[in-house]
Amino acid sequence: MLSDETRARIESAKKVCVFTGAGVSAESGIPTFRDAGGLWENHRPEDLVTIEAFERDPVLVWRWHLWLQNLCHGSQPNAAHEALARLDSASPEFLCITQNIDDLHERAGTNRIVKIHSDLMQIRCLAKDHVTQLTTALDEHSIRSSDDFPKCPKCGSPCRPNVVWFGEMLPIEPLDRARRFASRCDLFIIVGTSGVVSGGYGFTEMAKHNGAFILEINPRKSELTYLADISIRLPAAEALPELFGTIPGDQD
Ligand code: OAD
Fold it and tell me: Is 174 in the pocket of ligand 1 (CB under 6 A)?
């Protein structure tokens, strides 16, 4: 799949930054956003993932988020998540910057991670911004009116999903951590993002500016492809285990 020179460059990396998007979870059965059959094929983001949509029709917004929360919670990490967890364990310095709001990286065992779009398994209260981590998915059918919104366990006020919606700022601490790491890494691996949103974040440019080797894994060309030293046109669950070993216990 790779030349000896490229492989040597990847294997000698000391500071590895992985940047993931929805494509890394595609083989777990979670649709991406912009591919055929993706989440934005039949819905307009402005009806579901903006503060204006929540003010206009919060029941619809909550029910859609809980539908997705149940889908993600019921899905399992795939071979791509598992290969990246191995890379986390094997690398002296490592950070996975993910745009994904599912928790499949964490469930696969990736520990060094920042979630720049936050987390579908968290709720945030509208009164005081208290964040609560859920341990189980909530029933979408339980939301029939604003009286049914999940309540903050700390102050009792209604909550919203704690994910970053269109038009909202990225959370400052994760963004700073991501930028600091990306701008000092020597290997930057882009997995399964179209770059339509993330192209604006500048992580890939920062890594490139530092002289990092840029490896992209995506079956299709993306908005970030022009920055890549190499693009592997394969699904993540095929390419990543081949690059970074197989799952312990799978080897006979
Ligand atoms: P997109 O849906 O825009 O892009 C998904 C990318 O994954 C595409 O480039 C596909 O070619 C690629 N892909 C599909 N299957 C793949 C596979 N098996 N292996 C590897 N790659 C595959 O998703 P994102 O770029 O993640 O924002 O979208 C970015 C943001 O837009 C999301 O985080 C979300 C969305 O609106 C928020 O929720 C704030």
Answer: no
Query: Residue 225 carries which side chain, given as an amino acid letter?
Result: T
Half-sphere exposure of 247 (CA within 13 A, CB side): 13
Tens digits of per-residue pLDDT, 112-167? 999 999 999 999 999 999 999 999 999 999 999 999 999 999 999 999 999 999 99
Look up the domain containing 39 and give its range.
31-74+118-163
Is there an atom of ligand 1 within 6 Å of 218 CB?
A: yes
Q: Measured between alpha carbons, how far is residue 104 from residues 61, 77, 143, 171, 221 in Å? A: 23, 5, 26, 20, 24
Instruction: Say how many domains are in the chain.
Output: 2
pTM: 0.95
Residues 137, 243, single domain; the answer is no
Q: Strand ranges (DSSP E) for the chain?
A: 15-20, 93-98, 113-115, 118-125, 131-133, 159-163, 187-191, 213-217, 230-232
CA torsion 111-113-115-116 (nearest 10°) is 170
